[in-house]
Amino acid sequence: MPFVEIYLRKGKTPEYRKAVSEAVHASMREVFQIPEDDFFHVVHEMEPRDILQAPTFFGVERSADSVIIRMTFNHRPAGQKAALFEAVADHLVAAPGMRREDVLLTVLETAAENWWAQGRLIDPESGFDVRMSPEAMQAGRIG
Asked: Residue 143's pLDDT is what?
């Protein structure tokens, strides 16, 4: 049950905000194989004065169109998180057309027992939603 927070400056269209959210969700579906309906995103539209950043970070120029995306989910291997970061950046470049240099991604990991939603069933062996179990994936219930 990933939870995503997207921080961007005010002035973006609803379509732009939706495209950012969809890019993150599509990446999580590809990399983590989460179910389509495992979707909880909050978009925080900030006054430009409320997102403070260095214009050059790691020697790369950042613009006022930069976005900060915080993803909260259960522990994942480092390689899987790296693949997720690349997928999110790729999707954001494709739509809504962001510059890769303007993407900042961060992860907060939490234990499986720290999540609750009515109807959610946890596989005691994996700690994940039962729809994400190997058996469910083999049966084709996960896209």
From this structure: 33
Residue 12, phi-psi category: left (phi > 0), alpha (psi -120 to 50), beta (remainder): beta
Interatomic CA distance for residues 38 and 56, integer angstroms: 35
> Do the bridges between strand 3-9 and strand 41-46 make them parallel or antiparallel, or are there none, so unpaired?
parallel
Per run of 10 residues, the mean pLDDT along the chain (length 143 residues) is: 94 97 97 92 96 92 95 94 98 97 96 74 73 52 36
List b or e across 20-58, with b for residues whose CB sees 16 or more CB atoms inside 10 angstroms. bbbbbbbbbbbbbebbeebbebebeeeeeeebeeeeeee
Instruction: Round to whole Å and give the CA distance between 41 and 50.
Output: 20
Distance CA 23, CA 10 (A): 19
